[in-house]
Amino acid sequence: MLNVLQGRVFKSFIFSLISIFLLACGQDKTATDTAVQEQTSYQWKMVTSWPKNFPGLGRAPETFSKYVEKMSGGRLTVKVYGAGELVPGFEVFDAVSQGTVQMGHSGAYYWKGKAAAAQIFTTIPFGMNAQETNAWLHYGGGMELWREVYEPFGLIPFAGGNTGVQMAGWFKKEISSIEDIQGLKMRIPGLGGEVFKKLGGIPVALTGGELFTSLQSGAIDATEWVGPYNDLAFGLYKAADYYYYSGWHEPGPVLEFIVNQKAFESLPEDLQAIVEVATRAVNQDMLDEYTARNNTAMQSLKDTHNVDMRALPADVMKALKKASNEVMQEQSAADATFKKVYESYSAFQSKVSQYHQISEHEYYKNRSAQN
Q: pLDDT for 213-268, tens place per residue?
């Protein structure tokens, strides 16, 4: 009996030792895997909708790449490709969604065929400016909605820059009344294009690299792009005589970084944080760059190239605003997700406008007042 009992105790002891050994091995394996992951280097590719190194839009992805490489000590590198180098500018969304590349930089309103609500995350006609839109995204629930819209496509979006209020665009003929828009072929994307169409215009989808030749050849009658900084670089003043302001259609357009969800989740937590922090830095940096460069470029357009800059007539602006309200209601009625996002956006705009009416607006008015 004693021998039996001793045998059972011995077997129990051996089993316990084996269990402890296996558990320790598992813990060591987890720790080892974590250590290996933290030392692994990752090489990503990013495709964009812009010409390589184009001022502002094209340089933002390059800035992101530099930030990430430096902050990660070279553990994560991101090679940037301009529009057409790996994929066409309008195929960025699909390339990242399918995992062909890990990242993209573009504008969410290009993907309205994928998800109508995506347009809102770029801008809304007569909507919020850059400061207000960033506040909605990061402190008003906008980013959560954006990620909800992109989740079915396996994408994680981040705000990736803002140009500030844009110009109304370049026109080959004068715009004296709303009738002058009838039949006008204009490169104008997103919800602004829907408004333009509602008023009898013909919106055309073109990437930046196609603008000059299309305008010069007469394939289009007008185009909006961004503002003086970019428009000067493209030489659009050589192809159209009239430069109109202000940008009713894009008052605070957000650019986007989109990341393949599986690629992002494969990164260790510190690299995930670096990606997120780098996007926030670039988001602000781009707005700073446009704010700094636009005025110098505008002076060059006026003084060196004798560009005729004009404000859109008041009755035209009034018609555009009325049509914008109608388009937003129509889009909301047609798509439940669009309605959900728009309600969040418009509610935030209403609240922030109340404060800006007595802060920003009053300050600008007082600053401009004559002594």
A: 999 999 999 999 999 999 999 999 999 999 999 999 999 999 999 999 999 999 99
Best CA proximity match to 173, nearest among 242, 219, 86, 119? 242
Of 222, 234, 243, 235, nearest to 302 by C-alpha is: 243
Asked if 181 contacts 201 with a C-beta cutoff of 8 angstroms, the reply is: yes
Question: What DSSP character marks residue 104?
Answer: E
118 contacts: CB under 8 Å, gap ≥ 6: 108, 109, 111, 112, 149, 150
Q: What pTM does this model have?
A: 0.88
CB atoms within 10 A of CB 342: 22
| Residues 259 and 267: beta-carbon distance below 8 Å | no
Q: How many residues comprise the chain?
A: 371
The answer for residues whose C-beta is within 8 angstroms of residue 192's C-beta and 6 or more apart is: 123, 125, 203, 224, 248, 249, 250
- Tokens describing residue 371: 């002594």
